[in-house]
Write a structure and sequence with these properties.
The chain has 2 domains: 35 residues; 115 residues, Rieske [2Fe-2S] iron-sulphur domain (Rieske Iron-sulfur Protein). The model has no long low-confidence stretch (mean pLDDT 82). Helices cover 14% and strands 24% of the residues. Helix 1 runs antiparallel to helix 2. The longest helix is centred in the N-terminal third of the chain and has 18 residues. The protein is α+β, with helices and mostly antiparallel strands. The strands form 3 sheets. Strands 5-6-7-8 form a 4-stranded antiparallel sheet, with no helix packed on it. The chain starts with 21 loop residues before the first helix and ends in a 14-residue tail after the last strand. Bound molecules: FE2/S2 (inorganic) cluster. FE2/S2 (inorganic) cluster binds next to loops.
Length: 190
């Protein structure tokens, strides 16, 4: 019997297309879903579509640390995308969704509780990779699962900072999820 050859699928670059970076892929996918949803609304026009496409602005890409400087279970506090938004960079010691580094265990999240904005700094539990309990109403968040709520009053996951690496350097490159107190992450709270 004659063997059937496997089909050869050319790469994007072989087709003259640019390979997407991790950040471009995430925001392109999120933007596509948003535009498809908007386009299905009655009265939505092409002009509005172009306007919304223009509003898919890119986040600042900023160096926030070095992998070699992180100790497992010891959070580093930083601010992103604004000086007033505290975030926690952490090497979990366990694979985390969206994690970077050789063990895929370096993640970063905002420390503003999604329920009513309670401060989560100083509440990390390294033995369980949990952030919380929030001092206001006791919500806890699982940092291995994209900041999913484990228990408590909050219903939204903790916004996760999109990370990229270059050599030993770690860069923040976006935010997945709405930061508490903001109508849109790229517009400052009023
Ligand atoms: S503000 Fe954090 S649980 Fe209510």
């Amino acid at each position: 019997m004659k063997a059937i050859d496997k089909p050869v699928i050319p790469s994007r670059s072989a087709c003259g297309l640019k390979d997407l970076t991790r950040r471009e892929f995430l925001f392109t996918a999120a933007g596509s879903v948003a535009l498809v949803t908007l386009a299905s609304l009655p009265g939505y026009t092409l002009a509005q579509s172009a306007e919304h496409r223009a509003r898919l602005a890119y986040y600042p890409r900023r160096k926030i640390g070095q992998m070699s400087q992180l100790e497992t279970g010891k959070p580093v506090l930083l601010q992103y995308p604004y000086p007033e938004v505290n975030c926690l960079l952490i090497k979990l010691g366990a694979v985390g969704g969206g994690g970077v580094g050789p063990e895929h265990d370096i993640v970063c999240f905002t420390t503003i509780c999604t329920h009513m904005g309670g401060p989560l700094e100083g509440t990390y539990k390294p033995e369980h990779q949990i952030l919380g309990a929030c001092p206001m109403h006791l919500t806890t968040f699982d940092l291995t699962r994209h900041g999913m709520v484990v228990s408590g009053h909050a219903t939204e996951s903790l916004p996760q900072i999109v990370l990229e690496t270059e050599g030993d350097d770690i860069y923040a490159a976006g935010v997945l999820g709405l930061i508490y107190g903001y109508a849109a992450n790229l517009e400052r709270a009023v």
